[in-house]
């Protein structure tokens, strides 16, 4: 199994450097590619802020990536749940934070937008302290 860094995935998605894209593509032809949760979080941030991808495009790209048969994740269920929340409009990082705290009764934050977005979701309790 190999592991890949954020910049490998960014090259794969953006194709902004032909030589690096080719090498990134070849890496994803390996039988097993590991991607950590923190790498996915960073990929989302880079695509959003540096490349100005829309949330829908980011969600589609990440969903496709993690669905590849040779991709291994450290927290498959967490990432899957976070991608579903992200698809519904939640910030990806907030979704990851929330889905990693599933054994907790309440998730506290001062982020009013985060609280508002989660108020009608019966699976997660997000509140202001």
Could you walk me through the main structural features you see in this protein, from its secondary elements to its overall organization?
This protein is mainly alpha-helical and 129 residues long. The chain has a domain at 2-74. Helices cover 55% and strands 9% of the residues. The chain has helices at 6-14, 18-27, 37-49, 55-66, 76-87, 92-99, 112-118, and strands spanning 2-3, 33-35, 71-73, 107-108, 126-127. It has a three-stranded parallel sheet. The longest helix has 13 residues, at 37-49.
Biggest sheet: strands, sense, closure? 3 strands, parallel
Helix and strand composition category = mainly alpha
Average pLDDT metric: 96
Proportion of residues in extended strands: 5-15%
Work out the helicity level.
55-70%
Strand order of the largest sheet: 1-2-3
Short description:
The protein is built from seven helices and five strands; from the N terminus they run βααβααβααβαβ. The chain has helices spanning 6-14, 18-27, 37-49, 55-66, 76-87, 92-99, 112-118; strands spanning 2-3, 33-35, 71-73, 107-108, 126-127. Helix 7 links the parallel strand 4 and strand 5.
């Amino acid at each position: 199994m190999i592991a890949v860094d954020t910049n490998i995935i960014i090259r794969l998605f953006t194709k902004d450097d032909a030589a690096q894209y080719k090498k990134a593509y070849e890496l994803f032809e390996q039988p097993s590619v590991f991607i950590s949760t923190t790498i996915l979080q960073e990929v989302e941030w880079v695509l959003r802020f540096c490349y100005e991808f829309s949330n829908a495009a980011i969600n589609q790209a990440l969903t496709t990536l993690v669905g590849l048969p040779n991709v291994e994740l450290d927290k498959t269920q967490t990432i899957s749940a976070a991608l579903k929340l992200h698809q519904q409009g939640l910030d990806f990082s907030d979704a990851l934070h929330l889905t990693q705290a599933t054994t907790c009764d309440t998730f506290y934050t001062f982020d009013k937008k985060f609280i508002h977005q989660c108020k009608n979701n019966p699976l997660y309790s997000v509140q202001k302290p």
